[in-house]
Design goal:
Eight copies of one chain form a homooctamer. The first copy, chain A, is an alpha/beta fold and 250 residues long. Chain A folds into three domains: 30 residues, no CATH class; 78 residues, no CATH class; 128 residues, Rossmann fold (3-Layer(aba) Sandwich), CATH 3.40.50.1970. The first copy, chain A, is built from eleven helices and eleven strands. In chain A, strand 1 and strand 2 form a beta hairpin.
Chain lengths: 250, 250, 250, 250, 250, 250, 250, 250
């Protein structure tokens, strides 16, 4: 990709290789692809270490297919979240190595499996079995971005010894993602036990006064264990993404 | 249409052309058509510059069809919002030039395409691709009422250079409509960049703590960019209507 | 003020009058004043037609005083909202022509009284007497920015003839601001009667299930009269600002 | 029905016609029928002027059918609300004169059509066409209980002259029921115009920040027109029942 | 007061006694007094049977005093709600027979003590002692408007025999007002026991999840006893007003 | 106290010792004392094992004093909650052995210190130090009603070993009350560890999204540890009362 | 099952029968079965008197089947809540004596029918017929855990004599569960009448402002009858579980 | 501090140096200090890298003073949040080097100023001047824990160039904390511009529909910029703590 930094553009202007008007255009307009109703951000891969992730909900099948094809032309590894199974059907002929994970509803291509963050493990912990789809969204996101993930599932506080049985698996990780619905108490307990960054993901698991995850969300925000960061309800992707970013710090 | 002003009625009374009782009736009862369970307001076209717009949701098919036929007898251009596709099927034989826009769910007849507001452009801006149906409701409403519309889609703040790339298209408009879901931050950023009236439309795009548009709505109401007017969640029609009214000021 | 446009900077670079590094700095850094903990935006006056308005709430007395003095050095007319009376006391010696309006809590200097928007009137309408402080914030804001304002107070729908008695004063305006608490019904009624842009301001007037203005806010957002733009609860300033911006369109 | 008053029971005890134990039983246990999982209150007809009304939602088909058959054995006129069409199918053979009103979802038998409240009219007023199902629940309830009902539909405040055109029909009624969704402003306007009791029924008509009727409910509770009583969202039955009770006062 | 009916005006026009322009003015402008920031509705006394009631909250002392003096010039009996004690101090010299009720915070003049509604009693019932201030607002309002009131206080459902002990006092009334905070269950129990109209007033008595009356409000709206009308939290005035209006029906 | 059972009354009627009318009165009217605006329930002591507890909030000083004096004439041990210190001052001369506990704000007389529930301990557990006032309300209530109480304070889940250090003190109790604010996770953890009834009391300790205890309340209601009963926010009294009732079961 | 107490492990260490490392493992890891994505807690049966109850919602059919089979290998009596009918179909061949209760949606095996709590009755009371499914979840849970249950259905407060007719059935129980939707007033009335522990279960029965059980929940939490414990909306299981635990106290 | 690891204890048991009973006690009871109503966790310093932080709100002066003195005996650097100025007065004589920061309300002793995280900078960014107190709580917390902090204040999106002017200061940091009230849009914009972990802190700055920070909180949770972790409203401490933990990862 050619050099588009401000310095390079200004140098070209000084050298007379670039007109002022053209320079202004370049300074104002980073490269991107304009699809129908969508703008594909080509710079995000270099800027944030991973191509733009497609949020499939609310987009038509046509829009999703167009965007995936455009990504496929440019990147080795890319993904979409909240994908409908039909999208996989529509794309599998054109992109034979595309994969669809039913539990997490992630549609992805992974041609690059390098662990960019080495042996730094991200632990993904769930309170119950029903929280697994959200946990898998977090885990698969982190894996696609180049991280090692350790899954520690169904260790909620109602039988707290289940958690203690797996404590080593959690405390030895570099970042911990806690996924829980209902009252979300697991985040507080884990937050008090580990010294690494904890990301809490409330899930919509529950009924009645769980208000579709609202209660878990509020509980996690009020955790007495300081230093827990919270993402949106059922936002496994956001948690996986943040864990990857933290894991990349050094 | 005959003169129904208060002055005209009073003059007729004075001249003895109108009995007191009849005059009282006229003073009390503006013209309108009574359909089954619906009152069609015939004065709105002259009073507000466009015939009464039919809100199709919650009305039976029969009610909608009756109202559209009554509008068709009297007006060149008229529209209904939140229309079901079946309404188009039920009406297309009787009103051959009726149109249905799937994205915005607007059912309309447009026999008059005059730009009543000249070259004053209304910019309709969206944060994401998923916001387009609401944006199209705004855009098509404004167009049917006689305005030029410029669409600037998928320029949300997560990749803010996408917005800056299209800034000229936005700042050169006479009125700007910003359509965004999730956290609705685009309204604040645009509000700080333009000097023209900004109408913000929160959308129900999002999940979890987006609470079906509530979060975007609240965020837009609290915009630190003063002077942004907000309409109801997903209310593209209201935004298009207000933009038209502002565009008609001179 | 010297020419800081992108074109001028690029030309200077080409001419060799500006180093690449210095040019980059200028391109990245618009002028502004850095006060302690506050950044005063000097470009806003030219960009938005009025100097930055100071939101006094949450700022210490010292911060407010510093900002007002900085504004006083540069502008003829400027203002702060939600100001405490003590700020007036702290500033009146240094800025003798500063004024404080108790009802609206606006602290301001108005040395320029030109009507920038000519005879285009902004009508400010309230449902009750208790809504006046918010209405005055809107009215005074619009006046300071150079608009003629007509006040139509205490014409709520409980005695709807009061509204009809003043209807001419409202319908002849170019923009209408409706200020109402409790159930906020006045916005819908006015919205149905006028053909000009209507800005609705919910107030915290009421008790119990008015929830400090929440009910009026929600009611206004759901107005059956299409084309009403709503601002935050008690946000007279925002309404006045938006009315000014609309009034400036032509 | 034999005399079950406390006085009669005590007299029987004194006369030795009733043992103390039996008397105690009678004093403690008013007559009622125990169906499977339901207790049919036989005294309500005399106590409240109309047999117990069946709330069909949440009851199984079997439970509903059993209760309707039990009512049919004892009463001339009775009704159920929120009835599914299938209940009519299940009962029409056994109770040939049972009727089902699709709009209001009322299932009823009306063998007694006497106007128990004479010529005192209950006006049922709606803001829009979409509010009619709820209005019909109110109107039919009031009619079954023996009241004359006048329907005034689609006279919302967005075109307020529609309301004024029908004002006589409203002000001449003895009780007024106002049915409105969205912002519910019609209740306030009518409340300010009439001198008779006004019952406001918020409906779930609307979208976005109407929150399924919550906004209309809150607005009606905060009506600036004092003396408006509010019932639950979409509770046409409750409004019809209360109007009947008021209409029966004399 | 001279005849201002539409018929009279039109007759005067026909007779040439009134110019068209003057007639139009009269038709458009009912009589009212314009005070500073307030419009006193002079027609309300004849229209609704009682002069406009002053809502003192949110009005300045000056505004309240001005309005009370204007009322005093025209009416025998009038009142203001949510009045501060200082208003009494400011008015007692000029209006020696003005009275202030501390519990209900009503400021009033009662020179006319006729029972306009004869011996029809309004029962005001409270769940607890803490609900009395709201109950007194209802009771005094009803009394000032010309009704007989019976107080039945502290009969909440926690000790339900207290209620049964006073049942005759309640069932013999023509209208019943139930005032309760916390869970507001009393309204449902009373609603099931009486055959007269019941008006429920939720109060802000309680703590924690009573949410300042919200819980009682919601509970009353969902009363399983059909036919209960609800007013705003702590709105004793509205309940008293509605009870009076119902009591006046005949 | 004389025999007031239904059997006794009926027998007296049969024997001719009681007129029918008098019998009816007795059957309808249990004994109670009518104070000004308050009804003191004299039967509650025998019915529920403890005299009526006075909820002081919202009652005037005069009302509270009157009720306490009435209780003092009849009972050995009694109490009021949410009492202001001034009540103690007003009563200490007349009732020298009255006591006021500042932390819990309980005003009480305890002349009977018998442990009616023997050695069955109620454990009162708090998450933090700030939860102690609510915990003390629960503990003192339980003690006054005749229970042994064990306090286990400041053992929240952020440092979960603090809880395990005191586990024996908790698991050996007959009933456990868990008092916690913020995210209330302690209730879930304790609920999973003990086999005895757990009563959870959310407190208003916290800030921001704790919403004055709402978050802890919701979390406790959604506890993944089945079989936890929850009371209102800060309702230590209710928890103490329920623990006493459970402790009395045998 | 072999002795796994801490004392036994430490003794083995001292005796040299257990290495330090192995002892540490045992101390840290209680026995449990790891299924795919689920951890089956084998100690809960001895710890809490009943095997872990399966919450079927949110688990896949495969996960549920696996867990039920694992339970079937180890226990005589066990259960799952919120089970789909298909689970019964999938399991009935392998576990012939498995049962499915349609009303409560409980899937269970009951090979042990001993009344572990003797003749101590748990009364399950409902306000209406629509509350029965939740009541049955409570009743069946309590029965499976070894309790005698008495059902008292459809005795809501709208016809309060229905409740009094069954009062003996309620007051003679050892624990009372009150199940009610809408305004949930029954819990307060029952709470005031009985001296035994009361567990209130709000149900989602209702519409509009019942907010899917939220109103009943809030009302029950604010019950003026002290000492009522509340569980989550529709949580019949939790209530049955808590009643069993209370019933087991002695 | 002597070795308290499980291995050491087990070894002592094997060696006969520790009785089984004493070993059990040690295994079950980590060291901590029991103050009146508070348990001071001595292990947290080694476990989490910083002594337990005192949350002063809701604790009495006496409790706070006791805890601070206990901390002072054991640690060089420690702190309390939400401290009242009086606590400083009460402690300054006994702990002469204690400091109180008025803006952040942090009370602290800092005898150890080593940068444990070297030159890894934490950027603390605010939208407005009013957000500074919360930002300072974050900044000072991070500094006390041994981090370098860079403050970038008043760069909200209403004038977005202010943000771009400081972009280098933000993008060069290792962790970014964004502090914003009102609509909280700054978090989304910054989240899209940086590749490092972003922690968003909503503040209660704003009015009306900002609902004391709720709107900013919801907006941040819905940020379209993936990978933003959110903490409680006004929880500067939690953000500083989490930033420190992330900064310590390597």
């Amino acid at each position: 990709m050619k050099d588009e930094s401000i310095e390079a553009i200004l140098a070209a202007v000084k050298a007379g290789d670039l007109s002022i008007e053209a320079a202004k255009q370049q300074l104002m307009m980073p490269k991107e692809i304009h699809l129908e109703g969508a703008v594909l951000d080509l710079q995000r891969a270099s800027r944030q270490g991973f191509p733009e992730v497609v949020y499939c909900e609310g987009k038509t099948d046509e829009q999703c297919v167009t965007i995936f094809k455009a990504l496929n032309e440019r990147y080795d590894t890319f993904m979409g979240t909240r994908a409908r199974p039909v999208l996989y059907e529509l794309l599998k002929d054109e992109i034979p190595d595309i994969r669809y994970d039913e539990s997490s509803r992630i549609l992805y291509v992974q041609r690059n499996t390098r662990n960019v963050n080495g042996d730094r493990v991200i632990a993904v912990v769930t309170a119950g079995t029903s929280d697994i789809p959200v946990a898998e969204e977090a885990a698969l996101t982190a894996e696609l971005m180049g991280n090692m993930v350790r899954r520690v599932y169904d260790v909620g506080v109602a039988g707290i010894h289940r958690l203690f049985n797996r404590l080593d698996d959690i405390t030895s990780a570099n970042v911990v993602i806690v996924v829980a619905g209902m009252e979300g108490a697991l985040a507080s307990v884990v937050g008090g036990l580990v010294t690494k960054p904890v990301i809490a993901v409330p899930t919509s698991v529950g009924y009645g006064a769980s208000f579709k995850g609202m209660t878990a969300l509020l509980a996690m925000l009020n955790s007495c264990a300081a230093g827990v960061g919270v993402v949106n309800i059922d936002n496994g992707f956001g948690a996986g993404r943040m864990a990857h970013v933290i894991n990349s710090c050094r």
